[in-house]
Automatic annotation (TrEMBL):
The modification N6-(pyridoxal phosphate)lysine is found at K195. GO terms for biological process: methionine biosynthetic process; transsulfuration. Keywords: Amino-acid biosynthesis, Lyase, Methionine biosynthesis, Pyridoxal phosphate. Gene3D superfamilies: Aspartate Aminotransferase, domain 1 (3.90.1150.10), Type I PLP-dependent aspartate aminotransferase-like (Major domain) (3.40.640.10). Pfam families: Cys_Met_Meta_PP (PF01053). This is cysteine-S-conjugate beta-lyase.
């Protein structure tokens, strides 16, 4: 089956006990045991809930994993996955990793003597040089935020396998429609389901897909022990949003390409970052491991004044953190997602005061461009 069909028919769309064509919201904390000698499949909703399970099975199938897990947020998913490691373990992560992941590795895991090296994973040699005897995992994001930098999964997974190192990929920006790292040999995929997977900016959640029963059992242990589970209501909302992932992204991607083309022609724009552009650094690598450029892009204006005026005058797009919704969302990293990083550090990462990030939604692109034009030229 192709991906669009799998979104609708993957064995988790019909409630087995009633035939309901929308998985019911099993809003229950516990389950009656009909036979004290023979417990049923479910006993307590932290350990397992049928609504959550339908979502967990779906993400496993869509990512090509053996098991899936749903958490109360993307960060709960990432923190829980990283909690399979122990004192004395060493991790490698890309240096422009999502801010919350940076916080967890630098201010939380460090307290438990799990050390993380943040490096430029777009440079394969740098990855090789940072591997130690106690390196247990490499955590990757590609394309990364907000400059859409591309990391070569094929090359890094090959190195990791030589050293018996687990590869974890945060696949939030691409979604399971456009990129499947497990199929390239990665071990664990994590998602902020808050973004493209749910797609409507109305729920916070996280998903994990794991390859291999043994590794999955370690993640399940943390999910059940730590308990950062996704509730049935939110599981249902994400199941609902997930069904339209392909059509949403197809449309958003088309619009992103058109918007990129238009931005490239504007005198007030200095540079556009979008993996779908042939001129984007690493674009060839990106298309060797993903099916499309996605719906997130960023651009630099020529002056800081233009960037600020744009942010103040844009009307159709929401000015917000987050991405992947049906509405276009623009954010100003230096004042929003990356505000806590000192200017000097930010500049080392290439995040300038003129940078604007756009998550393209489902508005008609002509309207969006018209709005962007007015805001840019304000
Ligand atoms: C939003 C996001 C997260 C965190 O997810 P939450 O659902 O906000 O906890 C992690 N990684 C990436 C790439 C994100 O965009």
């Amino acid at each position: 089956m192709n991906f669009g069909t799998k979104l609708i028919h993957n064995g988790n769309e019909i409630d087995k006990s009633t035939g309901a064509i929308s998985i019911p919201i099993y809003q229950t904390s516990t389950f009656h045991q009909f036979d004290i000698d023979d417990f049923g499949k479910y006993d307590y909703s932290r350990s397992g809930n049928p609504t959550r399970e339908a979502l967990e099975n779906s993400i496993a199938i869509l990512e090509g994993g053996d098991r899936g897990f749903a958490f109360s947020s993307g960060m709960a998913a990432i923190s829980s996955v990283l909690s399979i490691f122990a004192s004395g373990d060493h991790l490698i992560a890309c240096k422009d990793v999502y801010g919350g992941t940076y916080r967890i590795t630098s201010q939380f895991l460090s307290k438990f003597n799990v050390e993380t090296s943040l490096i430029d994973t777009t440079d394969v040699d740098e990855v090789r040089e940072h591997i130690r005897e106690n390196t247990k995992a490499i955590f990757l994001e590609s394309p990364s935020n907000p400059l859409l930098k591309i990391t070569n999964f094929h090359a890094i997974i090959k190195i990791a396998k030589e050293h018996n190192i687990i590869v974890i990929v945060d696949n939030t920006f691409m979604s399971p429609y456009l990129q499947n790292p497990i199929k390239l040999g990665a071990d664990i995929v994590v998602h902020s389901a808050t973004k493209f997977i749910s797609g409507h900016s109305d729920v916070v959640g996280g998903l994990v897909a794991v390859k291999g029963e043994k590794l999955a059992e370690r993640v399940y242990f943390v999910q059940n022990a730590f308990g950062a589970i996704l509730g049935p209501q939110d599981s249902w909302l994400i199941l609902r949003g997930l069904k339209t992932l392909k059509v949403r992204l197809d449309q958003e991607q088309k619009s992103a390409a058109k918007l990129t083309e238009w931005l490239n022609e504007q005198d007030l724009v200095e540079k556009v970052y979008y993996p779908g552009l042939k001129t984007h650094e690493g674009s060839d690598i990106h298309f060797s491991q993903a099916k499309g450029g996605g719906a997130v892009l960023s651009f630099e204006t020529k002056t800081v004044e233009t960037a600020i005026k744009f942010m103040k005058n844009v009307k159709l797009a929401a000015v917000a953190v987050s991405l992947g919704g049906v509405e276009t969302i623009v954010s100003y990293p230096v004042k929003m997602s990356h505000a806590s990083i000192p200017k000097e550090e930010r500049e080392k990462l290439g995040i300038k005061d003129t940078l604007i990030r756009v998550s393209v939604g489902l508005e008609d692109i002509e309207d969006l461009i018209k709005d962007f034009k007015i805001a840019l030229e304000a």
